[in-house]
Rrf2 family transcriptional regulator (Saccharothrix syringae), 144 residues
Amino acid sequence: MRLNRSTDIALRVVMLLASGGGRLTVDRLAEVLDVPRNHMAKVVQRLQRHGLVVTARGRVGGVAVPVGALDATVGTVVRALEGEDEVVDCEGPPCPLRGGCHLRTALREAQLAFLAALDRVTVRSLVATPAGPVLLGLAAGERS
């Protein structure tokens, strides 16, 4: 299964913010992750809608990960951004093989296994050493 670009960016945003570097602006996130600002704003908005980040306006504003989201699983983040639609759409337009095809079932089982594996990984574990210090360096403007 391949994640869409927005989900990839969302996972990186959550990791970066969860590393403990404090609040970052959408502009700073876009700069650090080399993503167009408008795309970053949309990703942050979706993450906020699902409670995976919080935002604050003003001079000391920015985007942060709430403490509770540290225990969210990667599977939760992926489901929030990707949805739970099936890998293939056998209904529109209707596939002539759907009556006797086993592909749909096999792909659904694979998708569920993929998500189950991601459900074993928390945001907190993603920012543990050695990744945490690297992420903090990125947030601070250091390049490796």
